[in-house]
TrEMBL record:
GO terms for biological process: histidyl-tRNA aminoacylation. L-histidine binds at D65, F66, T67, R92, Q106, E110, R299, Y304, Y305. PROSITE patterns: AA_TRNA_LIGASE_II. GO terms for molecular function: glycosyltransferase activity; histidine-tRNA ligase activity. Homodimer. This is Histidine--tRNA ligase.
Amino acid sequence: MPNRSQIQARAAMMRVRFEAAGAHVVDTPLLQSAGMLLDLYGEDIRARAYVTSDALRGEQMLRPDFTLPVVQMHMSEGAEPARYTYSGEVFRRQEHDPDRANEYIQVGYEVFDREDPAGADAEVFSLFALQLRGLPLRAATGDIGILTAAVAGLKTTDRRKVALMRHLWRPRRFRVLLDRYAGRKQGPEDRDALLDADDPLSIDAPLIGKRRAPEILERIEALREDRAAPPISDYELAGLETLLNVRETMPFALEQLRDVAVDLPQITPALDRLEARIAALQARGVDVNRLDFEASYGRTSMEYYDGFVFGFYAEGRPDLPPVATGGRYDALTRQLGDGSEIPAIGGVIRPDLMLEIEESAQWA
């Protein structure tokens, strides 16, 4: 196993390479505001982060990643365009997988540039591929923006679309909702009795939580409206299912998705962006004919990404997490920009995993 000094030396070397690409070195505090992280991730972050409290600053968390504070820094004081690099420790609780490290070093590269988003996508991916050159890794890519565009354009109620968007990162829950909205599955057995009652609050059922009567009645009325809404059409459902199952090399994936756009025309602008990205990657020497594209990629682990996503994996070491991940997070800049926004993309690499894979290759 690589020691700490080896990991730090590799991180420093990688950071220098990102500096040579035009990045400015930045650092962020180890302690981050819990409120900011909770606003972004929700309460789920508590299960993954180390939480502490400060009498003056309130609830704090040990830095779970760099992207959020770097975006916050850029949106408050950064010039445009901008490129940043950094390296340092991040902290993640691993209660369900004690074999995984709960503290490790990341090296990152972030680009804020509104002039050429496709070019920025290609720049970040190709720089990461260059840093990882020589390692036995598989690159996977996807585009969260295609799926979000498909959901946003469904011919159904806004309430249903909001629910589907909220559970985009939970594929099983997303599937359950989709089947229900398409009329394939019914809701909970006792729901109809509740919704059909003239006085729902008189139903003999346990009350859970602290909702007041007006809030309960408002929720019941929303459920009644949802039950009365027509189902998602078969052709839209078939289009979504085909979209989610696309897994091909980039050019063939685009071809398949163009066919899907016949039934889901709302994804056409996102496909145009994918086509521009393919051209930009080719211009940087990336062999897109061997680059995998998975339409569902990133849905379980990349909550703040909203466009192009990528990762590099050691297929010979399925026990290891991704060596590098990244993606586009335009919406995050809008959320943290207090009214302003800028297209942005970035990613992180773990030098400890790079060294471990190199050692494994030496002994193979």
